[in-house]
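Lecture 7 notes: from sequence to structure.
We start with the chain below.
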Amino acid sequence: MFGVEATIDAGFAARHAELARGYGGGGDPQDPARVQAMGMVLHIPKADPPARRALLAAAATSVVALCLDERVGPGGEWEERYLGWKRSRIRKVARRARGAHWLAAQEVEGVTVEFEGAQARALVPGPVGETDPRIKRLQIGGTELPVEETEEIDTRYPVLWINAELGMTVGKAAAQVGHASMLLAGALPVRQAHDWATRGFRCTVADADPGQWARLLGRVEDGSGVAVRDAGFTEVAPGSTTVIAVP
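Predicted structure tokens for the same chain:
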């Protein structure tokens, strides 16, 4: 896909194999405090906020980078927490931060990505009842960024197409493109996933109008696209297709 040749080590292959197995199956625990979630922190300064599409691309990249980080692999320091989340019902919770709160979020275990001036951090998953206080105090409600017109798409990299008709908030969209980047990496052959990793998991996020969305659904049907279908806990109806990732 990317034309980059590099040696694939056994560790990466093992992490990709785990991602390729899919998600969920474990269901939710009876105790709500034990529900597993991956936290996401979006850097949204008040005075000079980032472009929405760039921020969402950073969010998507941070998630897939964490899911293929050596620390989540066999014997890694994050392995147990990662697998506990991945093998249950997948959830992500996005929050915003600025100033000192953004700096404090960097002290919580995770992976930060910067893309075109936008920054996002995916945090090591765990029970929602054990969310780090530095993260728990952050909010996302009331934060919005304007939707830009879709510019020319760089087809050298995967594109994560958002279903524009759903009108998702930036926090909801961040969680959904994070799902999409995981799904895409797992669906790719290990060589293509590794080539993507050598390019820092760079991707493009774009909003699809109804005509584009209809064509993208066709790509899902023929196996050349990967769809995210939401469980419907927030904002959208259960089963809604929120994002389609195209390699």
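Points to note: The radius of gyration is 17 Å. Residues 170-187 form the longest helix (18 residues).
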